[in-house]
Amino acid sequence: MNEAAPIVHVVDDDASFLAAISWLLRATGFSVKTYSSAQEFLDQRDAETRGCVLADLQMPKMNRLDLQSALAQTPYPLPILFLTGHGDIPSSVRAMRGGAEDFLEKTARVIEFGSQRNWQSMV
């Protein structure tokens, strides 16, 4: 069986941030696929989708809870990490209790993505 390489699926409604984070991840050697909404990601996902999801916490139409719930109900749920520019302790606790692998601020320095997180174990 020819298994596809794992991908970091980046979901964010901010086009400039989406471009920047996907460039950063590609520059560090990851395959990346981008989506401008949680619904777009779910619509394009199939049983063969592998990797992890890096998603904005606050997006229009489908929120974090909806995305986490939809992923948890699939036969092969993907690990999910949340990024936010509006983080607070209650939001991070709810995300982690909901099964998120991590909860990061969008203001995180580049070094945090490259050295403090073992991304290889996620994808």
Name of the CATH architecture: 3-Layer(aba) Sandwich
> Major sheet: size, sense and barrel closure?
5 strands, parallel
Averaged pLDDT? 78
Structural class estimated from helices and strands: alpha/beta
Estimate nothing, just give the exact number of structural domains.
Answer: 1
Estimate what percentage of residues fall within beta strands: 15-25%
**Sheet with most strands: strand arrangement:** 2-1-3-4-5
How far is the first residue's CA from the last residue's CA? 19 Å
Radius of gyration: 14 Å
CATH class: Alpha Beta
The tally of strands reads 5
Full CATH superfamily name: Response regulator
Cα shape: globular
Order of helices and strands: EHEHEHEHEH
Descriptive overview:
The protein is α/β, with parallel strands linked by helices and 123 residues long. It has a single domain (7-121), classed as Response regulator (Rossmann fold, 3-Layer(aba) Sandwich). Helix content is 37%, strand content 20%. The chain has helices spanning 15-27, 38-44, 64-72, 89-97, 110-116, and strands at residues 7-11, 32-35, 51-56, 80-84, 102-105. The longest helix has 13 residues, at 15-27. It is globular. The model has no long low-confidence stretch (mean pLDDT 78).
In short:
By secondary structure, the chain is an alpha/beta fold. It has a single domain (7-121), classed as Response regulator (Rossmann fold).
Please write out the topology.
Blueprint lengths: L6 E5 L3 H13 L4 E4 L2 H7 L6 E6 L7 H9 L7 E5 L4 H9 L4 E4 L4 H7 L7
Parallel strand pairs: 1-2, 1-3, 3-4, 4-5
